Amino acid sequence: MFQPKTAFSGFSVNDLAKAKAFYIQALGLHVVEEGGGLRLHLPGGGTAFAYPKDNHQPATFTMLDFVVDDIDAAVEELKSRSVSFERYEGMVQDEKGIMRGISQKMGPDIAWFKDPAGNILAVLQAE
């Protein structure tokens, strides 16, 4: 019978030191070096594991979402920490880079950014 004790996400990065600095300094996460990689302690109690990979290819999809109460405040705070937000063709995003899904009844308000390895992350507000 399948009875896992826990679960976590894992993803590769091309520079462990840069990833560690970004996840600590820009995102304010608690990060622990573990088993040749980084254990990221996520809000709400979950974890993710970042590991080095020589031929790393960035994720071409959003691989980690951070849920916030106030997306405007979160975007401004992240920008103050030198995080740049992505713009995607075909997505209607405001001047801050936020796609406003709530007002259009089309999902959350969401803004995308990348970690130093090019993996796509997002900050979102569901209501």
UniProtKB/TrEMBL annotation:
One GO molecular-function entry: dioxygenase activity
Lineage: superkingdom: Bacteria
InterPro entries assigned to the protein according to its UniProt record, in alphabetical order: Glyas_Bleomycin-R_OHBP_Dase, Glyas_Fos-R_dOase_dom, VOC_core
VOC domain location: 5-126
Oxidoreductase in keyword set: yes
Pfam families in UniProt: Glyoxalase
Keywords for this protein: Dioxygenase, Oxidoreductase
Protein's UniProt keywords contain Metal-binding: no
Protein name, UniProt field: Glyoxalase/bleomycin resistance protein/dioxygenase
Organism, as annotated: Ktedonobacter racemifer DSM 44963
